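ugh finaly. both done.
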Amino acid sequence: AGLTPTFISEHRLRCHDGSWKWILARGMIIARDAGGRPLRLIGTHTDISSRKASEALIWQQANYDGLTGLPNRQMLRDRLTQDIKQCQRDGLSLAVMFIDLDRFKEVNDTLGHDHGDLLLVEAARRIHACVRDTDTVARLGGDEFTVILSHLSSHERVAQIAQDIIDAMESVFLLGEERAYVSASVGITLYPHDATDIEDLFRQADQALYAAKDAGRSRFSHYTPELQEAALTRVHLANDLRDALAGRQFRVFYQPVIDFSTGRVVKAEALLRWFHPTRGWVNPDTFIPIAESCGLIKDIGDWVFHEAAMQARRWRDALHPDFRVSVNKSPLQFRNAGHRQAAWFEHLRALGLPPHSMVVEITEGLLMDATPAVVQQLDELRHAGVQVALDDFGTGYSSLSYLQKFEIDVLKIDQAFVRGLAPNSLNLPLCKAIIVMAHEMGMRVVAEGVETADQHALLKAAGCDSGQGFHYARPMPPDEFDDWYAARERGLTETIAR
């Protein structure tokens, strides 16, 4: 004691009313005895409670999410670091879960950010209720949450907790006077089974989350080494997609649609294909989701529409004056409020092409999550005269209310119903019911995936208007389509002549 000439400390004092104050004590020795021991000192006591409160607030804001009160990314990393050290000491394991709320953006877009915030707070509470007090639930931002399941002696409970979280999100969210529904997708990785580094654990959990969402959402997926290879492929393809438009690597193929009453072809569906310079033909099921996730689908979709419209102009001049071409429009294009369909309509005017010569195909999921931006664009198409077709009917969230709410011109029966079509199959009465219902509502019906003459005959007898599939022709480039069309017309003419 007394070895230094000054003294400083921070401590708390309890007041008479039971509250606490932080005090900064500072002092200086002013007299010592012959042995050098302190005799007298002077100093001050300063109330620093306000400063301490400000420091605590700054620390809270730096480490916790302001909306939900959960740890943020920085605190999550600190917690995970400590949990890993304890697992190393005790020979235990842990799990990292990435959780994403499916369809949350639609809640924000339709009900507003205030209701979206209420949903996030309730989602955080539900996730917390599914785990132990010793586990960590964090919010990374937006609708993304992370869970650390620490001190695991086995991995058996991990899948059950993931399913508990998914189930918890299925219940309705009561947001004031509004109601909302979302679901959750979960990606899981394990320490030390999958990785020992924090960055690797985060990357693997994110890859597993992508796999869960890609598999249909509202489910969980464990990390596997194959996901890393798939992730690298997606990264490379995303980079290559940016060059594909400029490098004219995309092609538009066309699959004919057969009118059952005449046997003639007066319509075709435009289907995007990508010929990669080193990979060759890339499956659309592979590159379309990547184009959607990296924001390129709008530019690609615009390019497809322009190409298809020009082809429709050529075929109306060369093949049939009422020839029509249908194009698929991604739900992400519809949900982009900034997507200007006016450019599409201007392109049609420049080509001298009547709007009804083009058909835009949409999916059932789009109608289920119809935001104001979606409704506006559907209305624009209808008012402009462009027809709207509902693709893959029967595979998603089919409801008569959607068909009544939105004006649909064409209903396309999904190939899953057509594939198993036979005289005594259950699919036949289903197809008949869909056809009757669509006709009663003023829609024409196209059957997809027709592969046999028997399927063609059954659908025609059931009153279906038209069909497409390998029984007639595969998708093909325009020049092959011209040759195929000419050959088919010659065959029809010869048949009639007989």
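ok and the 2nd:
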Amino acid sequence: MERRKTVSLEKLLQAVALGNMEDDLLSSIAGRLARMDKKIGPRIRRKRTDLPLP
């Protein structure tokens, strides 16, 4: 469930990168990623999962 609707995804991810592991923060990120996954098609999803790691 989205709990931090007014905070950008970028700021949420920055908070996690700095060590913040609050339940509402992680829940908001998970919800946004799930919505993004539903919006993209299988072709784009396949391209994104085939990218090499740096």
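summary for the 2nd one i guess: The longest helix spans residues 23-39.
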